[in-house]
Amino acid sequence: MSEQGHVADRLLEAVDQKGSPVCVGLDPRVDHLPEEFVITDGDPVDQIEAVGRWAIKVLEVVAPHVPAVKPQIAYFECLAGDQGFYGLAAYATICKVAGEIGLIVVGDAKRGDIGSTAEAYAAAHLTGPCAVDAVTVNPYFGADGLQPFLDVGRDTGRGVFALVRTSNPSATAVQDFTGKNGMTLYEHMGGQIAQIGRDANLLGQRGYSLLGAVVGATYPEEARRLRRIMPQQIFLVPGYGAQGATAQDCAAAFKPDGTGAIVNASRSVIYAHNRPEFADLAWEDAVAQAARDFARDIALAVQKS
Amino acid sequence: MSEQGHVADRLLEAVDQKGSPVCVGLDPRVDHLPEEFVITDGDPVDQIEAVGRWAIKVLEVVAPHVPAVKPQIAYFECLAGDQGFYGLAAYATICKVAGEIGLIVVGDAKRGDIGSTAEAYAAAHLTGPCAVDAVTVNPYFGADGLQPFLDVGRDTGRGVFALVRTSNPSATAVQDFTGKNGMTLYEHMGGQIAQIGRDANLLGQRGYSLLGAVVGATYPEEARRLRRIMPQQIFLVPGYGAQGATAQDCAAAFKPDGTGAIVNASRSVIYAHNRPEFADLAWEDAVAQAARDFARDIALAVQKS
Description:
Two copies of one chain form a homodimer.
Chain A: H1 7-18, E1 22-26, H2 44-62, E2 68-71, H3 74-77, H4 87-100, E3 104-111, H5 115-126, E4 134-137, H6 143-156, E5 159-165, H7 171-175, H8 185-200, E6 211-215, H9 220-229, E7 235-237, H10 247-251, E8 261-265, H11 267-270, H12 283-304
Parallel strand pairs in A: 1-2, 1-8, 2-3, 3-4, 4-5, 5-6, 6-7, 7-8
Helix pairs in contact in A: 2-4, 2-12, 5-6, 8-9
C-alpha cells in the first residue's frame, strides 16, 4: 500500500474532520453556470477555460463543508474544443486541485471492459497525472473487469466504486430482473461485489474495502438490503436533491454506527444560485450555503436513524 | 436523418463493397508496437504522436480489405501526457482520418450513465469534432441511459452498440444469472435492447436498427439464441483471434442471408508482425496479410453456415 494510505481510511477520516459523510458532484453544464462563466462568443476553448475557473472556485467554496467531491467526467468529455476532448484537460486539472486542497476525489467515469482493456482504464484513472482517489466502474463484465482496478489499488491505496443499484428510473427494468431463488440482479451483483472484495482482501484499518459500491438513494429499501449483503463496502449514494431522494432515504445506506456511506449531491449544490430561496445571494454564497445545508441535513439524518 | 445516411445501411454497403463483414480493432499498446514507433527516451507526448502515426499507417494498410475499424478508447485514454488525457487527441484524429478514407468507425468507449449524464456522453461521441459512426454503450442503467444516444442517432444517422453478451471469461458470473422463467440475464438484456430498438423505430432501408448489440464470439450458443431474440440488431462480435473464438464460432451471430453482424479482430491483425508465421515480413505487410486472411476466413465461414 502506498504512503498516502488506504482510500477508505482517508475518506472516513475526512468525514470525521468535516463532520458529515457527503460529497459534492461537479457536473459542469454550460447552460446552468453563473453568467460570468458563460462565454457569449461561443469559443469552445475559452468556454472550457471558464468552466475550469468556475469548478476551481466551487471547490474552494465547498471545501470547508464537505470531505469529498465527485467530478463527473462526461460533462468534461463533451466539451470538445477543436482538437477533441480538450475538456478533459480541465477535468484533470480540477481533480489535481481538489486533491491539493485536501478533498477526497471520486472520478465518476463509470468505465468498464474486459480485463486487458480494464487495465488501460485503471492506468488512466488511478495512476499518472490524472489519478483520482477512487473511480466509479461498471461491473457488467464481472470479476475480471474489476480486478485490474483492484490490482492498481493494492499498489496505490486508491479505490473503486462498482455500480450495483443506480439511481435512475429505468434501473428497475434491468436491475430488478429476478432469479430463480427470488434474488434480484442488484442483490446478485451486490453479492458478487462483496465476494470479489473479500477475495481481494484489501481492507483498511476501519474494516472497509478498497472496493466500494454505488447504491442510489432513490431506492432506500434496496439500499437496506444491500447494506446487509455488502458489510465491507463503502456505498457511494447518488440521487439526493435534484433526483428526488430525501436525507432520510439516504440514511438507509449507513450502518448503525453512522459509517459506511457517502451521499452525493450535484445540481442542488453547485447550481444553488438558480434556486429561488437563494435568489438574493451572490452565486458563491448560494453554493456555500447549499453545501452547508446539505452536509448538516445528511449528518442529522444519519444520527437519527 | 442526416444526409450521410443511416449507419446500418452504410455499414452493410461497406461490407458488400469490401466483401467481408469484419472490423479491425485499434488497441495501441506501446509494448506491442513495431520498434520504430517505440520512443526510447520515454517522452509521453512524443510517444503519443508515434502511436498516432502508427495507427494512421494501420488504417491505410487495412482499408482495402475491411469495411470498418474499432478504435478502443481506453488505450488512448491511458496515454496521459503531462496535462492529462492527451492521448485522446490522437484518438480523435484517428477517428477522423478513418472516416476520411471511407472506413466506418465504431468508437469502443462502453460509456453509460443515467439519462442526463448519458446526454453528455452522446454529445461527446456522436456529435462535434470527435463524432464516430457508432459508439459502444453499457446498458446496465436500462432504457433511459440509452435513449440520449438514440436521440442523437435520430438526428445524425449515427448508432449505438449496446453490450449484451461480452467475450470475457467472467461474463458468465453476471450475465448467466438466471431468472424465474429460466431466462438468463443476457437473454433478458437482449429482449430489452430489441424492445428499445422497436420503440425507437429507427430502422434503415435494410431492416436493421441504429441500436445494435455487442455479442461475443466466444459464446456461440448464446449468440444463436440472441440472434433470434434481436432480429433488428446488427451484432458487433468481439473475441475472434487472440481471445480464442474461431471463424465458425463467429458465424453463429449472422442470419441465414449472411447479414446482421460484423466480426472484430484486434491483436491478431494489428500486431501480426509479432506472429511467428509473419516473421519474415515488414510489419505493414504482416498487418495487410493478416487483415486479408481475417476478412477471407470470416467471409467463407459466413457463406458456409
